[in-house]
Amino acid sequence: MIIVMKGGTTTAQVEEVSKRLEEIGYMVNPIFGVERTVIGAVGCSEHEKIDAMEQLRGYEGVEDVILITKPYKFVAKEYKGGKAAVDVGGLLIGGDEIVMMAGPCTVESEEQLFATAERVAKAGAKVLRGGAYKPCTSPYSFQGMGVEGLRLLKAAGKQFGLKVITEVMHVRKVEEVAEYADILQIGTRNMQNYDLLREVGQSRTPAMLKRGMTAKLEEWLLAAEYIASGGNEKIILCERGIRTFEPYTRNTLDLSAVPALNSLTHLPVVVDPSQGTGRRDLIAPMSKASVAVGADGLIIEVHPNPDHAIKDGAQSITIESFETLMPELELIANAVGRSLKSVVTA
Ligand code: PEP
Ligand code: MN
Q1: Angle between helices 110-122 and 319-335 (to 10 degrees)
Q2: Confidence class of residue 206 from pLDDT cuts 50, 70 and 90?
Q3: Ligand in nearest proximity to the CA of 135
């Protein structure tokens, strides 16, 4: 790290900072310029860096503390020497193929789920989404079908050859949800639930970590680092929009995060244009844009009758719209050197 001292710093202040750095385990190299002094410090372990950085910021005469290396390790791109795919029971996410995840916001009934699963699978989706435990802003709103919803998801996935993704909200539910799901979804509201992240880190089931609605990329990657450092390296990131001042859309879908993450981390990146925009009419254009900027997959809310959906109907597309969208996405995928099979013949 580099410690930049303020102009007019005294030798005693530089010595004080240098002494503390040495105590922590750094080798210290102060450089005395004409106007300022900077202290180069190398050789300390990853773990100590962050706490040391915060401590030193409070020292007299210190203007700034800059880390030379990234604060995360297991999720950094260098760790795998490039982008790496996550294997979800034989389905690669982050490989050549763009993986489509589709299904209702919330599992409502067997009829609703199976009707959706059958047709999105035929249209080329590989993963069935659906909430069984729903994080709701209001405690009076439908909280999901619970275990019955999980059971339906697993059965529909099995019947139509789809992997299943569903949200886990609580540390004590990780094992239960993992019995039914192929991918554990961690929602935006839980991105910084560190106990949950640690618990998912103990699981061997792949996880999809959604971006916290006010999270910076570095905070998001550090949340992923919690999971990876626990031993679960099968992590997929999902950009789902962030809070801004714009009320026209539910969130502002930050598509610049996709290429940015592709340069920072080996983890696959999926985009959720449903939560990302909150608007049915924006799903198709933002899906296409996501593929164009390098997303490894999309997760889209699809409902047989969005106007009657219990949750998120306004941002859910019909099954027919999904069927229309798939070949359009295939064209864009091909244009950017990726594949996407829009119709499954079997
Ligand atoms: C969802 O996928 O339905 C959902 C609640 O997502 P998020 O956590 O991104 O709001
Ligand atoms: Mn939803």
Answers
A1: 30
A2: very high
A3: 1
CATH number of the domain at 25, please.
3.30.70.1140
Residues 10 and 103 in one domain: no
Nearest-CA residue for atom 6 of ligand 1:
187
Whether residue 73 lies inside any domain: the answer is: no
Q: What is the pLDDT of residues 114-165, one digit of tens each?
A: 999 999 999 999 999 999 999 998 999 999 999 999 999 999 999 999 999 9
28 shares a domain with 123:
no
Cβ 299 vs Cβ 316: under 8 Å: no
> Nearest residue CA, atom 4 of ligand 1?
187
Question: Are 195 and 281 members of one domain?
Answer: yes
Residues with CB under 6 A from ligand 1: 105, 131, 135, 187-188, 210, 240, 272, 275
Q: DSSP secondary structure string, 24-58?
A: HT-EEEEEE-SS-EEEEEE---HHHHHHHHHHHHT
Is there a single domain that holds both residue 250 and residue 124? Answer: yes
Query: Is the pTM for the entire model greater than 0.90?
Result: yes
Distance of CA 163 to the CA centre of its chain: 18
For residue 22, how many other CB atoms are within 10 A of its CB?
12
**Residue 291 CA, ligand 2 centroid: distance in Å:** 21
Cα 345 to averaged position of ligand 2 atoms, centre (Å): 29
The answer to whether residue 220 scores a pLDDT higher than 80 is yes
> Model confidence over 309-329: pLDDT tens digits?
999 999 999 999 999 999 999
Closest ligand 1 atom to the C-alpha of 211? Answer: 9
Domain region containing 34: 2-67
Residue to probe by mutation, ligand 1, list 166, 169, 240, 274, most atoms within 8 Å of CB: 240
Q: How confident is the model at residue 49 (pLDDT cuts 50, 70, 90)?
A: confident
Of 177, 139, 134, 180, nearest to 157 (Cα)?
A: 180
Mean pLDDT of the chain, nearest integer: 95
